[in-house]
Design goal:
Blueprint lengths: L1 H26 L3 E6 L1 E14 L1 E8 L5 E6 L6 E2 L4 E5 L2 H25 L5 H25 E3 L4 E6 L6 E2 L6 E16 L11 E6 L7 E8 L9 E8 L11 E17 L4 E2 L6 E7 L2 E13 L2 E6 L6 E5 L11 E2 L2
Helix pairs in contact: 2-3
Length: about 325
Amino acid sequence: MAAVAALLISLAGCKNGADKKSVQSEQEKPLVAIDTVTVESVAQQNEYSATVEAFATNNIAPQSSMRINRIFVEVGDHVRKGQKLVSMDNANLNNAKVQLDNAQTEFKRIDELYRIGGVSKSAWDAQKMAVDVAQNSYDNLAQNTTLASPLEGVVTARNYDDGDMYSMGNPVLTVERIKPVKLRINVSEELFSKLKKGMKVDVTLDSYPGEKFAGTIYLIYPTVNSATHTFPVEVTLPNSDERVRSGMFARVVLSWGSMNHVVVNDQAIVKLTGSGDRYVYAVESGKIVFHKVELGRRMDNRYEIISGIDEGAAVVTKGQSRLMNGMEVEIQK
């Protein structure tokens, strides 16, 4: 009897131990929060960073070193096309004018003699060439003595003062056309066939948070960079009020309509250590199943999923740190 009693006590102890282990196993199931995957209509967009550039930039300078007589404008001044901006020393121009006048006078004399047979055709040709050379020299010096703006724009740099000696290097002035301005972006080659000149795009600027500016695709480069598999695209902004200036940081958004795609809470996205891959942890029949996903756009606190998880799946949004594939979990109520 004593042996039987001892056996019963032993069995009872084993049963109690098994029950405790079962309770302990239940308690050790990780507690997770889940969210149900939904399908939504998602605007298809690509965003690119860019720096605002002047539509055209012109450096105002003579072709050779000479003294600056007077500069008529300051940085920030608006200038017209053809407006006189700088007057250089005219000593060389005066000398060129004297040489041109002498050449023309001599040619007039030679021409009269040639008409009556007093000189040969070769002498007439030589003097005519001398006049042409003197005229070209004078015209060139005239253009480089009075410097005019080749475009309508704004003076953005002045590197000399009146009386300074200009030397080859920095221009006397820089004039930029800022109506319109342009932005250059590098677009993936997969979009090459979708872009058309004249397409409208949205532009935002850090200088004007919350505002959208209407841009237009102005130029599409015809070749794709073989190293980056991108091609340059230029976008223009009218900038009629001149609020946008060169050097501002901008973002250009290209839109392609909308598509129905899976959308998940951003807390469900997990990046595996040592890999650039992204995963979501789904709960299927009470167990964790890892799903590698391809991300699309981020929209506030949600991500568009291009592939990897289906509508209706229950994905973990909290408690992923201790999870393993196939592990049983408890779902937070």
